Amino acid sequence: MKRTTIRWVICMLTTLPIAALAQTQPDTETAAPSTSSGGLFGGSKNFRTWSIGVNGGVLVPSVFAGGSNDFSKWQLNYGYGAYVKWQLLHFMSLRADYVGGKLKADNSRELGNGEAPNSPYSSFETSLKWSGSLNAVFNLATINWLHKKSMAQLYVSLGGGLAGYSPEITTAGGITTEYKPSGVIKEFYVPIGAGVKFKLSESLNLDLGYTMHYLDGDNLDGYNKAPSKDKYAYGYAGLEFPLGSKAKPQLAWHNPPAVMYDDLVAQRDQLRLELDAEKENNAKLAASVAKLQADSDDDGVSDLFDKCPGTAKGDKVDGSGCPLPKPDTVKPVQVIITDEDRRLVRDAIANLEFATGKSDIKPSSYPSLDKVADLLKRKNLSLKLAGHTDNVGSNNNNMILSKQRAESVKSYLTGKGVNPSRIEATGYGETQPIATNKTAAGRQQNRRVEFTIY
């Protein structure tokens, strides 16, 4: 028994690579986004998980692996079945199976696989009224890294159930009797199966399978020869119908590596688009920086903001790129103010007269002022004019009058060609008297415009 079991396991393992290659076809079409197939971590809500199946085939009182039989020659008989399946994961489901049919065998083969020479019976026939089992089904070859669309899958199953049957046994003399006249025998059994399933469409699968049933008793053939355990096998072909919306794929055919691959490709493409966008933005930024840094005349101001392009090299510029005024490099000529110059100014002061209460210069003062104008132009001198009044009148009026008289002198001199920037005119009103304002002579002295050359 052990050697037979080992041979069966080795045979199953060696067929796995062939089944894996045979079950798939290359996906030449564009892969659908992972959302249409439920996604890698989207749960089972996006798939069809329930299905029903019907099948028909043959029943034999023998199995591929598991010991000897009580009769030397088993016979093929019809069998039928149905199931309801709940797909828990893409590789695992729970399946409730029902199987019925007939089992037959005899001892017509002298050197068969049983103990025919010592058996008092020539044949048996058992009606398998019903059998129900709950099985865990594992898809062995659904996952495939090379292809995305599975067309076939190899699976194995293991479970437990209860069978109800009625044997009839025939003696060597040809007498047939019921093994248990009082009713149906009920025994626990362990089903172990394997099969291959083909996906015909999203709504139909073709199921080919073989299940070995190991009974917890020796009553199936009506010949109780303990401690042997009876067994039978069911080979079938059937159709499976997925339940639910046709818009959803079947979870049993879900290929996580393919979905993972599609998701990774989508993420790669998205990252590539984002990277290309970043490269484009970086290129624009680099162009903007290059434009900002461009300085054709090398004056330290970008061409973008340079209002005076083409500045000569070495010229100092302001913030707009325009040259700053160059300092006067001509050494100033030292001007010597002589006593004669001071006398001329004193004469102008002494001869300066205004109309009473006004800033109008009397014509008698013009010759002296002309000499002062000539002096200022000739020696490029500067002049400070300070206007003063007596205390007759209000302080405010006196301040205004003193300022106006100083400005009148400045206007006269600039009219003679003196640079206005060289003359400063200020009024002090009655604030700086040089004599008493109590006498007419003192008030006359206080009504003056002082000249200061420098």
Helicity, as a percent range: 25-40%
The description of the largest β-sheet is: 8 strands, antiparallel, barrel
Low-confidence stretches: 1-37, 111-116
Classify the fold: give the CATH topology of the largest domain. Porin
Structural class call reads: alpha+beta
What Rg, in angstroms, do the CA atoms define? 62 Å
First-residue to last-residue Cα separation = 136 Å
Query: Would you count the extended β strands for me?
Result: 15
Q: How are the strands of the biggest sheet laid out side by side? A: 2-4-5-6-8-10-11-12
Strand content: 25-35%
Mean pLDDT: 82
User: What is the 3D shape?
Assistant: rod-shaped
CATH architecture of the largest domain, by name, is Beta Barrel
CATH class category name of the largest domain:
Mainly Beta
- What is the total domain count? 3
The helix count comes to 6
Taken in chain order, the helices and strands follow as HEEEEEEEEEEEEHHHEHEHE
How would you characterize the overall build of this protein?
- With 454 residues, this protein is an alpha+beta fold.
- The protein folds into three domains: 2-25 and 46-142 and 149-263, Porin, CATH 2.40.160.20; 301-330, no CATH class; 339-453, 60s Ribosomal Protein L30, Chain: A.
- It has six helices and 15 strands.
- Strands 2-4-5-6-8-10-11-12 form an eight-stranded antiparallel beta barrel. A three-stranded mixed β-sheet has the order 14-13-15.
- Strand 13, helix 5 (395-415) and strand 14 (423-427) form a beta-alpha-beta unit.
- Helix 4 (366-379) packs across helix 5 (395-415).
- The longest helix has 38 residues, at 256-293.
- The termini are far apart.
- Mean pLDDT is 82; it is low at 1-37 and 111-116.
- It comes from Chitinophaga cymbidii.
- It holds the Pfam family OmpA.
- It is a multi-pass membrane protein.
